[in-house]
From TrEMBL, chain B:
The keyword DNA-binding does not apply. Belongs to the cytochrome c oxidase subunit 2 family. Its EC number is 7.1.1.9. It comes from Natronospira elongata. Subunits I and II form the functional core of the enzyme complex. Electrons originating in cytochrome c are transferred via heme a and Cu(A) to the binuclear center formed by heme a3 and Cu(B). It is a multi-pass membrane protein. The gene is coxB. GO terms for biological process: ATP synthesis coupled electron transport. Gene3D superfamilies: 1.10.287.90, Cupredoxins - blue copper proteins (2.60.40.420). This is Cytochrome c oxidase subunit 2. It is found in: Cell membrane; Membrane.
From TrEMBL, chain C:
It comes from Natronospira elongata. This is Uncharacterized protein. It comes from the Bacteria. Keywords: Membrane, Transmembrane, Transmembrane helix. The keyword Membrane applies. The chain crosses the membrane at residues 18-38.
Amino acid sequence: MSTATDTHHDEHHGPAKGMRRWLFTTNHKDIGTLYLWFSLIMFFVGGAMAMVIRAELIQPGMNLVDPMFYNQMVTMHALIMIFGAVMPAFVGLANWMIPMMVGAPDMALPRMNNWSFWILPIGFTLLLMTFFVPGGAPAAGWTIYPPLSLQTGDAFPLLVFGIHVLGISSIMGAINIIVTIMNMRAPGMGLLKMPIFVWGWLITAYLLIAVMPVLAGAVTMLLTDKYFGTAFFDAAGGGDPVLFQHIFWFFGHPEVYIMILPAFGIISEIIPTFARKKLFGYSAMVYAIAAIAFLSFIVWAHHMFTVGMPVAGLLFFMFTTMLIAVPTGVKIFNWVATMWRGAMTFETPMLYALAFLFLFTIGGFSGLMLAIVPADFQYHDSYFVVAHFHYVLVPGAVFAIMAAVYYWLPKWTGYMYSEFWGKTHFWLSTISINVTFFPQHFLGLAGMPRRIPDYAVQFTDFNFISSIGAFVFGLSQLIFVYVIIHCIRGGVGRATDRVWEGSHGLEWTVPSPAPYHTFETAPEVK
Amino acid sequence: MFKAKLSGAIRHTVLLGLFLLPGSALAFREGINLPRGVTSISSDIYDLHMLIFWICVAIGVIVFGAMIISIFLHRKSRGVEPAKWHHNTAVEVVWTAVPFLILVGMAIPSARALIDIEDYRDYDMSIQVTGYQWFWHYEYRGEDVSFYSRLDDDSNRARQLRAHREIDPLDVDNYLLEVDNRVVVPVDQKVLLLLTANDVIHAWWVPELGGKKDAIPGFVNELWFEISEPGVYRGQCAELCGRDHGFMPIVVEAVEQEEYEAWLEEMRDRNAENEDATQVSAIDVAR
Amino acid sequence: MSEQDDDRTKQNRRRARFWALVIGAVAVTFYVGIFLLISTRY
C-alpha cells in the first residue's frame, strides 16, 4: 500500500464540495465524522439538562423549576445521553476505525451507512420537539414504566416514533458493522487476529440486533395501550404493568453492555500502546467479552428486585448477576497485567484509560453490592444507584470515548492536539466527576431516593458538593471542544503516520491524516 | 434567618474543603452509611452490606495497589524495558477461579438473608397500604381503622416554588419527611404490609425498617417488619410516580402495645365521627 | 467506491449483502415475534 496510489485515487474520487459531501456521503470516514460531531452536540444538550438538575438540587426547596419540568429534565437527560451521545459516539468510532483496522476499503454497505446516520437527526428532532407540545416532554423517566408513562401528553407518540427511528438506525448500523467484520477483512486477518476494539464492536452489534427490536416492541405496545384500547400493561384489562418492566429490561440490560463493550475495546487498544507491551491474554479478553454479552441476557430482573418476585427468581437473578463479576474481573486483571512491567508514558489517552480503569472498577464494586438482593432492597431506586451507573457510564463509557478521541485525533486530522490542554481537560474532568458522583453513594445509603426534585435538609451538604462538581465538569468540557477545534486547525504540529511510539495495527500504517480512501487494495496481514 | 443562611454557606465551604482532604470521611459520620435500623431485616441487611463492602475494599486494595505500583515503577521515564510476555495460563486460571470462590462466599449469606426476609408467614397484624398520586392510604385490616396520610402542611407550604413560598424549608422540622397522619404500629409485633396502588406504581421505603417494595396497581405485594425500639421512622416513595413523587413521605411511629390499643380506639372514634364522609375501602378503589 | 472495487471486494460485498438480509430478517422476525408472543398470552 503506497501513498502514491492513494493520492492518485484522491484526485478522482475526493470528497464532493459543500453540503453535498455530508448529505450524500457513502464514505465511512465522513460518516464517522458526522456521528462524532452529532454525539458531541448531544453531549452538550444532555449536559445542559444535567446542569438544570444539579442547579435545582443545589439546596433544599424548589428554587428554579417546577417538579414536572424537573421530571422532564431527568427523563430527557437520560434518553439524550444514552441514545444521542454515547451510542452514536461508539458508532462513529466504529465507522472510522473498523474498516481501517481490518484492512477493508470501506464499510460493506456504504449507502445504508449513510441512512443509518441521517435518520438519527430525524429521531432526535422528534424527541426534542416534545418540549413544545401540550403536556411537555416525557417525564416518566427514560424507563417509561406504565402506567405513569401513559399519563404523558401529546409527547407520547413522538417519543415512541423517535425511539423507533433511533432503533432502526442502530439496527442498520449494527448489521453493517457485523457484515463488514465478517466479510471485508484483509487476507490473513483471522478472527483471532482482529484488534479487541473490533471484537468488542462485533459482539456489541449482535447485542443491538437482539435487543433493539425488543425495545421497539415494548414501546409499540405502550402506544397501542394508550391509543388503541389494548391492555398489555393495564391490570384492569387483564394485563400486567410489571410485564413491561421485564420486556424493557430484557432490552435494557444488554443496552448497558452495548455502552460498555466498545469501551472495553478502546481501553484494550490504548493501554498496550502506551505500556509498549502486547495486550495480556488476548484470547481471554475476547472470551470475557463474549461471556459478558451472553450473561447480559439472563440478568435483566436485577433492575426490578423490588417488584415482588418469587424467591427462586430473586436467587436466580442474584447469582447470574454476581457471575458477571468473573469475566469483568478477568478484563480488569488483564489490563493491569498489560501495564505490569511495561514502559508506560502518560499522554492524554493513557490518562483517560487509567482513569477508566480506576473509576470503572469502583462502579463495578457498587454493581456487585447492588447484585446482593437483600442489600438491593435498601439501595434500589436510591442515589446509590445513581452513583453506581454514573460511575460506569461517565468515567466508564464517556471517558473511554474521550480517550479514543485523543488517541485517534492525530490520525483523523493529521495534526497533534495540545497535550497541555488535553491534560488540563483530563484532570479537571476526573476530579470534578468524583466530586459529583462519589457523595451520591452517601446520599443513597443515607436514604435519599432518586428522581426527586427536592429533599430533606439532612441531604443538603452532599447535594451541594455534588452540584459544584457537576458544574465544574460541565464547564471543563468546553476545553474538550477547544482542543478538538484547535487540533483540526493545525494543533501543535504535524502528526507522524504512527503517531504513538508504541502504536500497532493497520490503522497506523496509513498516512496521517488518513486519506479519503484507504486499503483499496487489501493489505497482506502476516 | 440571614445568619442561619450565612453560616450554612460557610459550612458548605468548610465541608467542601474537608471532602477534598483524605480521611475527611470522619467529618461525615452521620448520614454516610446505611442505618443499622430497628428491625431484624434491616440489621441483617446492614451486616450483609458491610460484609460485601469490606470484601470490595480488600479486592480494591489489591487491584488498585497493583495499578499504582505499576504506574510508579513501570514507567518509561525510569528507563525500564518493556517485558515481552503476554499471557500466562496458570495466572489467568487463578484470577478466574479465585473471584468465583469469593462470589460463592458472598452468595451464601446473601441467599440465607434473602430467604429469611421472604418469609411472610405467622404475622401478628396486617395493614393494607395503597399508593395514590401523591399520598398514601392505610387500612388496618380487621381493626376498622383507615386513613389517608399526606405531606404535612408546613412542608407543603415550604416546598412551593420560590415565588409562592411562605416558609423557608430550613425552618420546617423534618422538611418533606413529616405527614399529617402517621402509621402507628406496636413494637415487637410482626407487621405485614399488603401493598397496592390506585393509579401508577409507587414504592414504600423506610430505610430504618429495612428495604422497600413496589406498590403496583392491580397487584398486591407483601413487606413485613418487626420493630424492636419505640420511635419515629421516616421514609419516602421510592418509585417515580409523577409530578409530586418527591412529596409523599411515609412516617411510621412504633409504640408500646397499650399505647397502640389506645391509638386504635381514638382512630375508631374519629372514623365514626366522619361516618358521613364514607371512607371507601382502598381495595375497592383499587378495583 | 463500488465502481472501482476489485473483484475480491466485489465478492466480499455480495456476501455481506446476503448476510445483512439474513440478519435483518431475524431482527424483523424478533420484533413481530414479541407481539405475537405477548398478545397471545394477554
